[in-house]
Write a structure and sequence with these properties.
CATH topology: Aminopeptidase
CATH architecture: 3-Layer(aba) Sandwich
Strand content: 25-35%
CATH superfamily: Gcn5-related N-acetyltransferase (GNAT)
Number of strands: 9
Strand order of the largest sheet: 1-4-5-6-7-9-8
CATH class: Alpha Beta
Number of domains: 1
Organism: Rheinheimera muenzenbergensis
Helix content: 25-40%
Structural class: alpha+beta
Protein name: GNAT family N-acetyltransferase
Order of helices and strands: EHHEEEEEHEHEHEH
Number of helices: 6
Distance between the termini: 21 Å
Low-confidence stretches: none
InterPro entries: Acyl_CoA_acyltransferase, GNAT_dom
Length: 191
Protein backbone atom coordinates (compact mmCIF):
# COMPACT_ATOMS: atom_id res chain seq x y z
CA UNK A 1 0.00 0.00 0.00
CA UNK A 2 1.13 3.53 -0.80
CA UNK A 3 -0.22 6.88 0.44
CA UNK A 4 -0.44 9.69 -2.11
CA UNK A 5 -1.85 13.21 -1.98
CA UNK A 6 -5.37 13.25 -3.40
CA UNK A 7 -5.49 14.35 -7.04
CA UNK A 8 -8.37 15.06 -9.39
CA UNK A 9 -7.54 11.79 -11.20
CA UNK A 10 -8.61 9.98 -8.00
CA UNK A 11 -12.06 11.61 -7.87
CA UNK A 12 -14.09 8.80 -9.53
CA UNK A 13 -12.60 6.13 -7.26
CA UNK A 14 -13.00 8.28 -4.12
CA UNK A 15 -16.63 9.10 -4.95
CA UNK A 16 -17.40 5.44 -5.57
CA UNK A 17 -15.77 4.33 -2.31
CA UNK A 18 -17.39 7.15 -0.30
CA UNK A 19 -20.86 6.35 -1.58
CA UNK A 20 -20.32 2.63 -1.02
CA UNK A 21 -19.22 3.14 2.61
CA UNK A 22 -21.23 6.20 3.68
CA UNK A 23 -24.36 5.92 1.52
CA UNK A 24 -25.66 7.07 -1.83
CA UNK A 25 -25.20 10.74 -2.67
CA UNK A 26 -22.65 11.23 0.10
CA UNK A 27 -20.15 12.62 -2.43
CA UNK A 28 -20.32 13.90 -5.98
CA UNK A 29 -17.78 15.61 -8.23
CA UNK A 30 -18.77 19.18 -7.31
CA UNK A 31 -18.68 18.55 -3.55
CA UNK A 32 -15.42 16.64 -3.81
CA UNK A 33 -13.82 19.43 -5.86
CA UNK A 34 -14.74 21.95 -3.15
CA UNK A 35 -13.44 19.66 -0.39
CA UNK A 36 -10.23 19.04 -2.32
CA UNK A 37 -9.58 22.80 -2.48
CA UNK A 38 -10.31 23.19 1.24
CA UNK A 39 -7.43 20.83 2.00
CA UNK A 40 -4.81 22.79 0.06
CA UNK A 41 -2.97 25.63 1.77
CA UNK A 42 0.57 26.93 1.28
CA UNK A 43 0.77 24.56 -1.72
CA UNK A 44 0.40 21.61 0.66
CA UNK A 45 -2.39 19.06 0.21
CA UNK A 46 -3.80 17.58 3.44
CA UNK A 47 -6.07 15.01 1.73
CA UNK A 48 -4.73 11.57 0.81
CA UNK A 49 -5.57 8.31 -0.91
CA UNK A 50 -4.25 4.84 -0.17
CA UNK A 51 -3.57 2.75 -3.26
CA UNK A 52 -2.77 -0.93 -3.53
CA UNK A 53 -0.07 -2.54 -5.66
CA UNK A 54 -2.34 -2.44 -8.73
CA UNK A 55 -2.91 1.31 -8.31
CA UNK A 56 -6.52 0.95 -7.13
CA UNK A 57 -7.75 3.38 -4.45
CA UNK A 58 -8.47 1.36 -1.30
CA UNK A 59 -8.91 4.27 1.09
CA UNK A 60 -9.09 8.03 1.33
CA UNK A 61 -8.98 10.81 3.91
CA UNK A 62 -10.41 14.28 3.18
CA UNK A 63 -9.07 16.97 5.51
CA UNK A 64 -9.53 20.75 5.55
CA UNK A 65 -6.74 23.21 6.32
CA UNK A 66 -7.15 25.60 9.25
CA UNK A 67 -9.09 28.70 8.20
CA UNK A 68 -10.50 26.96 5.11
CA UNK A 69 -13.68 25.44 6.46
CA UNK A 70 -16.96 26.83 7.78
CA UNK A 71 -18.04 26.54 11.38
CA UNK A 72 -21.63 25.38 11.82
CA UNK A 73 -24.11 24.68 14.60
CA UNK A 74 -22.34 21.39 15.35
CA UNK A 75 -19.07 23.10 16.29
CA UNK A 76 -18.70 23.57 20.05
CA UNK A 77 -15.87 26.11 19.89
CA UNK A 78 -16.02 26.84 23.62
CA UNK A 79 -14.91 23.24 24.24
CA UNK A 80 -11.95 23.34 21.86
CA UNK A 81 -8.41 23.41 23.25
CA UNK A 82 -7.07 25.59 20.39
CA UNK A 83 -8.30 28.80 18.75
CA UNK A 84 -10.54 28.50 15.68
CA UNK A 85 -7.74 29.65 13.36
CA UNK A 86 -5.55 26.71 14.51
CA UNK A 87 -8.23 24.03 14.13
CA UNK A 88 -8.22 21.80 11.04
CA UNK A 89 -11.16 19.61 10.07
CA UNK A 90 -11.20 15.89 9.32
CA UNK A 91 -14.10 15.69 6.91
CA UNK A 92 -14.27 12.09 5.76
CA UNK A 93 -12.46 8.77 5.61
CA UNK A 94 -13.34 5.46 4.02
CA UNK A 95 -11.46 2.20 3.57
CA UNK A 96 -12.43 -0.65 1.26
CA UNK A 97 -13.86 -3.62 3.17
CA UNK A 98 -10.99 -5.86 2.07
CA UNK A 99 -8.45 -3.47 3.66
CA UNK A 100 -10.11 -2.74 7.00
CA UNK A 101 -8.18 -3.63 10.12
CA UNK A 102 -4.83 -3.27 8.34
CA UNK A 103 -3.89 0.23 9.56
CA UNK A 104 -5.01 2.08 6.41
CA UNK A 105 -7.23 4.60 8.22
CA UNK A 106 -4.56 5.27 10.85
CA UNK A 107 -1.88 5.82 8.20
CA UNK A 108 -4.16 8.22 6.31
CA UNK A 109 -4.93 10.12 9.53
CA UNK A 110 -1.25 10.51 10.41
CA UNK A 111 -0.35 11.66 6.89
CA UNK A 112 -3.10 14.29 6.95
CA UNK A 113 -2.21 15.47 10.45
CA UNK A 114 1.44 15.99 9.46
CA UNK A 115 0.44 18.24 6.56
CA UNK A 116 -2.23 20.06 8.58
CA UNK A 117 0.40 20.87 11.23
CA UNK A 118 2.65 22.29 8.49
CA UNK A 119 -0.34 24.42 7.42
CA UNK A 120 -0.56 25.89 10.93
CA UNK A 121 -3.05 23.63 12.71
CA UNK A 122 -2.46 22.42 16.26
CA UNK A 123 -5.49 20.12 16.33
CA UNK A 124 -8.16 18.64 14.12
CA UNK A 125 -11.90 18.36 14.65
CA UNK A 126 -14.14 15.59 13.37
CA UNK A 127 -17.79 14.70 13.56
CA UNK A 128 -17.61 10.93 13.91
CA UNK A 129 -20.46 8.66 12.77
CA UNK A 130 -21.57 7.04 16.05
CA UNK A 131 -23.76 4.46 14.33
CA UNK A 132 -20.87 3.00 12.31
CA UNK A 133 -20.84 -0.81 12.72
CA UNK A 134 -19.78 -1.50 16.29
CA UNK A 135 -19.13 2.25 16.66
CA UNK A 136 -15.77 1.47 15.05
CA UNK A 137 -15.28 5.05 13.84
CA UNK A 138 -15.43 6.54 17.33
CA UNK A 139 -13.26 3.75 18.76
CA UNK A 140 -10.64 4.28 16.01
CA UNK A 141 -10.55 8.04 16.56
CA UNK A 142 -10.35 7.60 20.36
CA UNK A 143 -7.48 5.14 19.93
CA UNK A 144 -5.65 7.80 17.87
CA UNK A 145 -5.84 10.10 20.92
CA UNK A 146 -8.97 12.14 20.20
CA UNK A 147 -11.24 13.27 22.98
CA UNK A 148 -15.03 13.41 22.88
CA UNK A 149 -16.41 16.95 23.17
CA UNK A 150 -20.13 16.54 22.53
CA UNK A 151 -22.71 14.26 20.90
CA UNK A 152 -24.94 15.82 18.23
CA UNK A 153 -28.19 13.91 17.47
CA UNK A 154 -29.37 13.76 13.85
CA UNK A 155 -26.19 15.43 12.60
CA UNK A 156 -26.64 14.39 8.95
CA UNK A 157 -30.43 14.80 8.63
CA UNK A 158 -29.99 18.09 6.76
CA UNK A 159 -27.97 16.28 4.06
CA UNK A 160 -30.88 13.89 3.52
CA UNK A 161 -33.25 16.83 3.15
CA UNK A 162 -31.06 19.17 1.09
CA UNK A 163 -28.74 16.90 -0.91
CA UNK A 164 -30.63 13.63 -1.23
CA UNK A 165 -28.18 11.76 1.00
CA UNK A 166 -29.29 8.18 1.64
CA UNK A 167 -27.91 6.82 4.89
CA UNK A 168 -26.87 3.15 4.75
CA UNK A 169 -28.68 2.59 8.07
CA UNK A 170 -31.63 5.00 8.09
CA UNK A 171 -32.46 5.30 4.41
CA UNK A 172 -33.68 8.56 2.91
CA UNK A 173 -33.96 10.44 6.24
CA UNK A 174 -30.80 10.07 8.35
CA UNK A 175 -31.21 10.04 12.13
CA UNK A 176 -27.60 9.17 12.95
CA UNK A 177 -25.69 11.09 15.59
CA UNK A 178 -22.18 12.50 15.54
CA UNK A 179 -19.49 12.51 18.18
CA UNK A 180 -17.71 15.87 17.96
CA UNK A 181 -14.11 14.91 18.69
CA UNK A 182 -10.85 16.85 18.85
CA UNK A 183 -7.49 15.33 18.04
CA UNK A 184 -4.44 17.17 19.30
CA UNK A 185 -1.58 16.70 16.88
CA UNK A 186 0.72 16.27 19.86
CA UNK A 187 -1.48 13.36 21.01
CA UNK A 188 -1.29 11.77 17.56
CA UNK A 189 2.51 11.98 17.58
CA UNK A 190 2.50 10.14 20.93
CA UNK A 191 0.42 7.17 19.62
Amino acid sequence: MQLLPLSENDFPAVISLANQVHGDNYLDTDRLQQMYQQGIKQQLNASFVAVDASGAVVGYRLSFAPGQWQLDQWCSTALWSVPVEQMAYFKSVAVAASMRGKGVASALLKASAQVLAQQGARAGLAHIWRESPGNAAERYFSFAGARLLKVHPQRWRHLSVTAGYICPLCGSLCNCSAAEMELSFKALADV
